C-alpha cells in the first residue's frame, strides 16, 4: 500500500513510507540547512495526515526529520519579517494552533522522533504529538527560545507546555527562552524516552506499534514523564503527588491564591531582569495565566493576539535583525574574497597565563578542541592558567553539562610551561601579555624564531595598532589582532583586526578559529583602539567627566542600567580595572586629539591604588569578591569631594550614549568598520549596548540623523569639542540618508 503525496507536500520536503502499519513521515525542507515552519509546511503536513487517516492499514504515525542534525529549528523568521500588520501575524498563529490541535486530536497515535535542534515551533509541533522520543546526542536540544527574539510561542506552546510539565517549570523555560538537553527534557516530562541516535528510528517504529496496539499507555503527571501500564486514574494521580515539590507546585497552580502568588512572584523577578524593556516575557506570562484561569481556548486566543502584537513590535524587529546579522556573519570568511578557505588549526600557543591567557587557553583547548600550550614567565603564571581552565571545567561539572571524565579529557588538551617547548608545531600563537609595544615586539621575534614559517601570530591587544606590531615581524602578512573580551569563556564577541598587509588566508583562518571557539566574530580594519575599545573610551570618559562634575556614582550607574546596559559605567570601570582605562586615555588622546582627552577626575583614584575589583577597592566595596555598595571614601579623591550634585538620569544616559554612537559613526566613516551591521553586532556582543535598541546604528536611525546631530551640537555648545559630530553623520543629514535601508 502506498499513499501518494501531492506536489505541495513534496515541495515542502515531505516524504512518506509505510512500514508494517506505521506511516513514517520524513520532513526535509529543500534548499535549507534546517527544517523551519511556515503556513505552507503546516498545510502540507495536515494534508498528509488526512490521507493517513483515511488509510485503514495505517495504525500509527512516526514524524522524523531528514536533516542530519536538526529536527525543526522553529518558524521561518523572514516570513514573519515580511508581515505588515499584527492581524496578519495573529492569523498565522491561529493557523499554526489549528494545525497542531488537529494533530493532538488525531485518532491514530503520532510519535515525534527527535534528533538535533527541536526549538520554538519545532517543539510546539512535537508537543502536539502523542509520544516523544529524543536521541541522547549533544546536538539534540529542546526549548522555546522565542522571547530571545522578542516573541512568544505562537502555535500553542504557552498552553501545552504548562499542561504537560506544570506552570512553574514551563515559566522557567518560556520566560528565559533557554533550552534543555535530552536527559533534562526526560526528567521534566517533555520527552518520554531518550535513546542512542543509531536506534532512534527503530525504537520509534516499535513504540508507535505498541501505542496503536494499546500495550503502551502513556500516563503522565506534571513533570513525571511516562509510566507504561502503571496505576490509572486517581490512584496514578495521587502517586505522582507523593513528590513534595509536585505537591507545592499543584498547590500553587490549582487555586486562585496560589496562582496569584506564583504569577506575582514571576512578574517581579521578570521586571528585575527586563526593566520593562522587553515586552515578550511579560506577555508570555499573561498568556499562560489566561490559559490556567480561563481554559485552553481563551489561552490560545490570548496567545495569538499577543504573538501578532509582538511580531510588529520594534523590539522584536531589532532582536530578529540581530539574529539575522549574526547568522550572516557565520557564513562569511572575513575577507572580500569569499573563495578564500581557512587553514586547519590543530595546535595553538598562548603567551601569558593571566586572566585573558587562561580564558583563551580554555576556549581554544576545550571548545575549539585544539592542543594548547601556554607559556608564562614563571611557574606560578603557568599554574594560574591551568587552574583557571580547571575552575571553569569544575563549574560545568557542577552544572552537569560535563562529567568528571569528560572534564579531565578536555583539561588534558592544555599544558603549560615557562619556555617555548611545544611552540615549534603551533599553527597559531596568540599573545596576551602586558600592553607594551616593545615587549610585544620582543615576544614576536622570539616566537618567529621557534615557530614554522606558516605560523600565524595574533595579538590580544585592546589598543595597540596591529600595523605597529607588524613592523617588528619578519612575516607581517601573518600578523593579526584577535581581541577577546573578559571573561573570555563567557563574553560572546571576538574582534579580529587586520592591517593593510594581512594575508586573506590568515584572516579567514582566525575567523574560523573564533567560530569554533563559540564566538560571534567581526572583522575590523586597523586603527588605535580598533572599534570596540575606541567607542568605549569616550563613553567611559564622559562618565568620568560627570563624576568630576559631582555626579553620584550609584545614580550614574543606575541611569545607564535603566537605559538598557547590563551594568553601569562605574561598575564597568571597576571590572575592567580603573588603571587599565587610565592608561588607554593618553593613547586615545595622542591618536585623536583633545576631543578624546580623558578628564583628570580619576588621577587621584588611581594614585590611591584603587584599581577596581582586582585590588578589592575601587568605586565600590567588595566582600569575598562580591560587589557591595559604593565606597563613600572614594568621593574624597574626586574634584567635588563629598559634595554631590543632582543630575537628571536621562541626561546622564544621553551624554554617554551619544559619545558611543557618535564614535561608532566615525569608525564607519573612516573605514575601521566594514558595515553598520558589524558595528551593531560588535557593540551589543562586546560592550552590552542594549539589544532591544539594535545597536548604535539602528539607534541612530530610530532617533533620526537630524535629531542626533541636533543633540550633539547642543552638547558641543554646552560642553565642548568632545561632542563634535562625526562628519559621516553630517553627510547623512544633508543627503537625507539612513544607516540601514528604509
TrEMBL record:
Under the heading InterPro entries, the entry gives: 3-OHacyl-CoA_DH_NAD-bd, 3HC_DH_C, 6-PGluconate_DH-like_C_sf, ClpP/crotonase-like_dom_sf, Enoyl-CoA_hyd/isom_CS, Enoyl-CoA_hydra/iso, FA_oxidation_alpha_subunit, NAD(P)-bd_dom_sf
EC number(s) given by UniProt? 4.2.1.17
The EC class name is: lyase
Q: Which Pfam families does the annotation name?
A: 3HCDH, 3HCDH_N, ECH_1
Q: Which reaction does it catalyse?
A: a (3S)-3-hydroxyacyl-CoA + NAD(+) = a 3-oxoacyl-CoA + NADH + H(+)
Q: In which pathway does it act?
A: Lipid metabolism; fatty acid beta-oxidation
Report if keyword DNA repair is assigned.
Answer: no
Q: Where is the 3-hydroxyacyl-CoA dehydrogenase NAD binding domain?
A: 347-526
Domain 3-hydroxyacyl-CoA dehydrogenase C-terminal stretches = 529-622, 653-737
* Keywords associated with the record: Fatty acid metabolism, Lipid degradation, Lipid metabolism, Lyase, Multifunctional enzyme, NAD, Oxidoreductase
- Which family is it part of? In the central section; belongs to the 3-hydroxyacyl-CoA dehydrogenase family.
Against NCBIfam families, the record matches this protein to: PRK11154.1
Identification of the protein by name: enoyl-CoA hydratase
Give the organism the record lists. Myxococcus stipitatus (strain DSM 14675 / JCM 12634 / Mx s8)
